[in-house]
């Protein structure tokens, strides 16, 4: 397993200043690398290890942007907080509902459900957001949120959109099968 903080890019895609990236990100472990035929493409599975923030930018002389980072500590949460429990329960219920409607989602859930602690609301929210088709800004919003209840709420909103999308897909599938 390796760790990465830099991605291979074409020169014109190199990030050379902070306007090209978010200030909060994730330090990730490479979990799996799949090379496709003729090495024309690769698929990388990254597992986030911790949230990070950019502290300082180092002179890069028009090369790749080099920064100093620090880990963002996950705040403590009140295990007895009823809203946190309620949001967590709703996320688990939504995940189960989506699994019933979408067989591809089921495979994804089986793989990851053994690797996460659903009793940790921060991890549950991150997992829930990661399995959605939310756009980059929505996912970034979850990543940047430090308040436990707010992060759970944002993740649940993404899952709710995903459930609606799954319902529409299921309806389309049923219409096609009827013809």
Automatic annotation (TrEMBL):
Gene Ontology biological-process annotations: chaperone-mediated protein complex assembly; mitochondrion organization; protein quality control for misfolded or incompletely synthesized proteins
Record GO cellular component, one term: mitochondrial matrix
Pfam families: LON_substr_bdg
Superkingdom per UniProt: Eukaryota
SMART domains for this protein: LON (SM00464)
Lon N-terminal domain sequence ranges: 1-163
Listed name of the protein: Lon N-terminal domain-containing protein
Annotated organism of origin: Aphanomyces astaci
Lineage: Eukaryota, Sar, Stramenopiles, Oomycota, Saprolegniomycetes
